[in-house]
Specification:
two-stranded antiparallel sheet, alpha/beta, 6-stranded mixed beta sheet, 9% strand
């Protein structure tokens, strides 16, 4: 992605020069709050590594700092820099420099009390220089006849008072989680760096140790600063730099933008901020993945990049609310994000997104079996591609129709993608289009059917996963010795065939009919090798197919699966005959287990798979 040289200027700069030359820095008033936790420990470890290295050789790169330059020539200092990316590391650096400043003052006072004038002078010089070069800047108001000291870094409105209190060494009480994180960061810095310096023997040695910490930060640490005069370019660059746009910070940018939209309506602005706090309190992956799913779920098209710009232009095309009703509409949309994300998180965990309230005495709309299909689809089969459609359906149709979709997608994804390796592009387009259709139908109060989608997915199966190809892929790919993913597919295949056993024994004609009273917990199902993996008596033909589908069955969660390496004759009486799993129990009818029995069972499983995993 290209960025014009006229609007984006990158440079590598030492942290000290950054704070001295380009200031003041400010975090937008309603930007996301301070959020570093484990990263603070990593930061102090990096500083300690710098201190232990040779001063001439030591150097550390602390990442990027993306800023928007604001210019007002009517001000005594015409340029100030809005931080788009990098507030966490810069705030942590300033916290550290503030502690060096206060620790140096403490050493000065102690040295003075002990009559060590030279150390006191050194400590005062370190403190004053740190404050004047890195923490504060002097603003001369000539007309008022005053000069004031202003901070070189200010944080968001939610954090700045607390942050400045920490900088000044005041006793401040945390009022929110971000305050607690700032206080914890300061404590970690003090323990890992400052207290160690103050344990040095003489006052002069303490000053030298504090100065060594400062040198490591301001002279030996560097950042890539990128300054843009254009907000859109800064946000675009930020999205690209952060994991190709898949980061939580896209939501941060959207939060800031929506709060700017309603800046003229304080009541509504407070409500928008409150809802965003709830959204951003979720794990970052949930938030970023939600927006990646939500956009195609509502627009019918893939997200693309940059994500922030896509979200902004689609959901908030007006940059400023002109009246209260428009401000309220922003609240409504952000609240919709929260509600949809709560459903999204449930679905991605395999949890049923409906609260069932059946009529007393009436059969429930769906059974436990139907609910288990969702867990299979998103957890066992890992069909994340369908998340936009599942989200749209959960928000648009009754749970019985949602269950129909889940069952259809389970059949399709297993056959087309997991077994036959079909390409994702074709179903993705259909999923996105269908998501938009089902939402439109809900908005227009129209009856909706999955018939069109079913027809399209059936056509994809006929093209990329026909019976012959499906059988071949089942035999070649579903091998136990191929590891975890294929073992999950083996469990899916065998248990699904078992659930259809009654229908299959009646001929398996027409639409597949599972026994919905039969629910297998795939996490507790154990795969059994009929011819054991390490047999006492070897059989070269069976040894060669030991891990293949025809030689595999399964035990239910509560059955004794300690058959181990016993031979077939021993297992069929003690383990197979009493099994409650039909296909395992059927093995007891064989007088022996040879390559002929294996081949017949394999062929039967493949035929049954084609009957069960079909869209009719």
């Amino acid at each position: 992605m290209a960025f014009g040289a006229e609007s984006v200027t990158p440079r590598s700069v030492a942290v000290g020069n950054l704070l001295q030359e380009h200031h003041p820095f400010f975090v937008p008033r309603y930007q996301r709050s301070y959020a570093w936790e484990d990263q603070v420990t990593a930061f102090t470890d990096d500083v300690k590594d710098l201190m232990s290295a040779s001063p001439q050789m030591a150097s550390h790169f602390f990442g990027g700092l993306v800023c928007i330059e604001h210019t007002d020539h009517a001000q005594p200092r015409p340029h100030k820099y809005e931080i788009v990316d990098g507030q966490q590391r810069l705030a942590t650096i300033v916290l550290t420099l503030a502690q060096i400043y206060r620790a140096a003052l403490s050493v000065k006072n102690d040295a003075t009390e002990h009559g060590d004038a030279q150390a006191a002078a050194s400590a005062e010089t370190l403190a004053t220089d740190t404050r004047d070069r890195f923490l504060e800047w002097r603003n001369a108001n000539v007309s008022a006849g005053v000069t004031e000291s202003l901070p070189r870094l200010t944080l968001s409105s939610a954090d700045d008072d607390f942050f400045q209190g920490l900088i000044a060494g005041e006793e401040v009480q945390p009022g929110r989680e971000s305050h607690e994180l700032l206080a914890a960061a300061e404590a970690q810095i003090r323990t890992a760096l400052i207290d160690r310096a103050l344990q040095e023997g003489t006052h002069q040695e303490q000053v030298a140790a504090l100065d060594r910490i400062r040198t490591a930060i301001v002279s030996q640490s560097h950042v890539i600063q990128i300054v843009s005069s254009d907000r859109d370019r800064a946000y675009q660059l930020f999205s690209v730099l952060n994991d190709r746009g898949r980061s939580l910070e896209d939501a941060d940018l959207l939060r800031s933008y929506t709060l700017e939209i309603v800046h003229g309506f304080p009541k509504q602005q407070g409500k928008v901020a409150e809802i965003w706090d709830k959204i951003l309190s979720a794990p970052s992956k949930d938030v970023s993945d939600f927006f990646l799913a939500y956009y195609p779920s509502t627009t019918g098209t893939r997200t693309g990049l940059p994500i922030f710009k896509k979200l902004r232009d689609e959901y908030f095309p007006n940059p400023e609310a002109s009246d209260e009703s428009e401000a309220i509409s922003v609240i409504s949309k952000v609240n919709e994000f929260l509600e949809e994300m709560e459903v999204f998180v449930k679905i991605r965990k395999g949890e049923w997104p409906y609260r069932s309230h059946p009529t007393p005495g009436a059969a429930p709309a769906v059974t436990t079996w139907h609910k288990d299909r969702l867990r299979r689809l998103v957890i066992s089969l890992k069909h994340e591609l369908a998340m936009p459609l599942l989200l749209a359906a959960a928000r648009s149709v009754e749970e019985k129709k949602f269950a129909e979709l889940v069952c259809m997608l389970e059949i399709f994804s297993f056959r087309y993608k997991n077994v036959c390796g079909g390409h994702a592009t074709a179903p993705a387009k259909r999923y996105y289009s269908e998501a938009k259709k089902v939402r439109n139908a809900k908005a227009e109060s129209k009856v909706f059917s999955w018939a069109g989608l079913k027809s399209e997915l059936k056509a994809l199966i006929e093209k990329s996963a026909p019976d012959d190809q499906f059988k071949s892929a089942l035999e070649s790919r579903l091998r136990y010795d191929y590891g975890g993913a294929q073992r999950s597919n083996i469990r899916e295949l065998l248990t699904t065939i078992e659930e259809h056993s009654t229908w299959l024994k009646k001929g398996g004609n027409g639409q597949p009919k599972p026994d919905t009273m039969m629910v297998f917990d795939l996490d507790r199902v154990t795969i059994e090798h009929i011819h054991p993996q390490n047999p006492v008596a070897s059989d070269s033909e069976l040894d060669a197919v030991c891990h293949h589908l025809g030689n595999l069955t399964f035990f239910g969660p509560d059955e004794n699966s300690k058959a181990g390496n016993k031979d077939f004759a021993s297992k069929k009486v003690a383990y197979y005959a009493p099994s409650r799993v039909g296909m395992t129990k059927d093995l007891a009818s064989h007088s022996q287990w040879s390559i002929n029995e294996y081949e017949k069972r394999r062929d039967g499983l493949l035929e049954n798979a084609c009957k069960v995993f079909t869209l009719g």
